[in-house]
Write a structure and sequence with these properties.
The complex is a heterodimer of chains A (111) and B (114).
Chain A (H helix, E strand, L loop, with lengths): L3 E4 L2 E5 L4 E7 L3 E9 L5 E7 L2 E5 L2 E6 L4 E6 L8 E9 L7 E3 L3 E6 L1
Parallel strand pairs in A: 2-11
Antiparallel strand pairs in A: 1-3, 3-8, 4-5, 4-9, 6-7, 7-8, 9-10, 9-11
Chain B lengths: L3 E4 L2 E4 L5 E7 L5 E7 L6 E6 L6 E2 L6 E5 L5 E5 L8 E8 L9 E2 L3 E5 L1
Parallel strand pairs in B: 2-11
Antiparallel strand pairs in B: 1-3, 3-8, 4-5, 4-9, 5-6, 7-8, 9-10, 9-11
Classes of the chains: A mainly beta (111), B mainly beta (114).
Chain lengths: 111, 114
């Protein structure tokens, strides 16, 4: 079992829809990151969470430490949101501070 | 600011050839990383440099070497390329390895080994 699982793997939605991408992890973490990989390949960090909720524009990220689960929401989705969204966690154990990445969720927003 | 710059963007090699992927950052970050990204798998850490003058193996170091040339630059070398090293390679940097600051990524190098 992978340490970081994302769902769904692929998601296609109409412009304007509310989008939810999920991330579950199996280890104790000090932080969880959400990243966006553009169709051209570049990777951008969106959020870093250790508890609660963060909002940036139309993007909202939440984390439930007890349930080892995080969600990334996109409100009023737009075709420019089409990208791969990647969840990554940083472990808490000494020697395990590296980031472990999920395989990503490919989001396609149709006009 | 350019952020993290990787060169080249694309490269095709024959099995057994060697090459060096270059990475430079202009954010005065202490820690730098090399990852590979393969279809159906998450990014995997090849090597990292927690600070200038130090390098350590990551999850998949076999077949690679690295050099932290100075605080700005961190190169990845394939001494004898193999088809299994066909991948997209990303360099990243962060202020410190053990902080929860975000990592900043380059645009990637798409490498094909024939």
């Amino acid at each position: 079992k992978n340490e970081v699982e994302q769902s769904p793997q692929n998601l296609t939605a109409q412009e304007g829809e509310f989008i939810t991408i999920n991330c579950s992890y199996s280890v104790g973490i000090s932080a969880l990151h959400w990243l966006q990989q553009h169709p051209g390949g570049g990777i951008v960090s969106l959020f870093m969470l250790s508890s609660g909720k963060k909002k940036h524009g139309r993007l909202i990220a939440t984390i439930n430490i007890q349930e080892k689960h995080s969600s990334l929401h996109i409100t009023a989705s737009h075709p420019r949101d089409s990208a791969v969204y990647i969840c990554a966690v940083r472990g808490t154990n000494f020697g395990n501070e590296k980031l472990t990445f999920g395989t990503g969720t490919r989001l396609t927003i149709i006009p | 600011n350019a952020g993290v710059t990787q060169t080249p963007k694309f490269q095709v090699l024959k099995t057994g050839q060697s090459m060096t992927l270059q990475c430079a950052q202009d954010m005065n970050h202490n820690s730098m990383y090399w990852y590979r990204q393969d279809p159906g798998m998450g990014l995997r850490l090849i090597y990292y440099s927690a600070s200038e003058g130090t390098t350590d193996k990551g999850e998949v170091p076999n077949g690679y070497n690295v050099s932290r040339l100075n605080k700005r630059e961190f190169s990845l070398r394939l001494e004898s390329a193999a088809p299994s090293q066909t991948s997209v390679y990303f360099c990243a940097s962060s202020e410190w390895q053990h902080s929860n600051q975000p990592q900043h990524f380059g645009d990637g190098t798409r490498l094909s080994i024939l």
